[in-house]
User: Fold this.
Amino acid sequence: MGSAAAAAAAAALPASAGSGENLVLILDYGSQYTHLITRRVRQLGVLSLCVSGTAPLAALESLRPRAIVLSGGPHSVHAEGAPTFPEGFLDFADGAGAHVLGVCYGMQLLVQSLGGAVEPGERQEYGKMEVEGTAPSSALYGEAETGKRQTVWMSHGDEVVRLPEGFEVVARSVEGAVAAIENREERFYGLQYHPEVATFRMKFSKLNYKFISSVLGSLKGKLFPPWYFV
Assistant:
């Protein structure tokens, strides 16, 4: 979606979305799964809008999203001409008070932009992979998740080797690669895997229940019930 289409889509949103009441904005970097992120968020009963990840900031300025998802993509952050978010995006997100979640390429892009390091992986991971929680408490997984494992869908050649200041690793793959990170104070989060893939829909729903409900707080004055995704 180009800048004109992004602006048109933004203009078509309900007035409440502009105030940031319940909008999740998805920036698309070319992943074959991006449309699934949009759909999964809507299945949570939350308004979502997907636009090009390279859309100019002017196309987004009328929006006040409560959460922004940076999608995956087939790119390396080191490749010449690799897509990135528009200049001023981080200030825009901060001004909106938005929580930013990077998925796969989106996580690597976020890490590199904030001063961390991404390098070609020694252990390139594709397909099903187990990840293990490494933090006793996190925004992404909740409480008492240390040592717990789940099977996810990986698809990456590069990997995060140094975190930006203020971040912590909250999950790793069984091969040792960074699988999930967060900086709760600055409202930045990252997942190296694709929780939106249909095979892992239940895990995606439960993870995003924790993330989106903690970000949005409530939708139309009613908290998501804990049994919503059972």
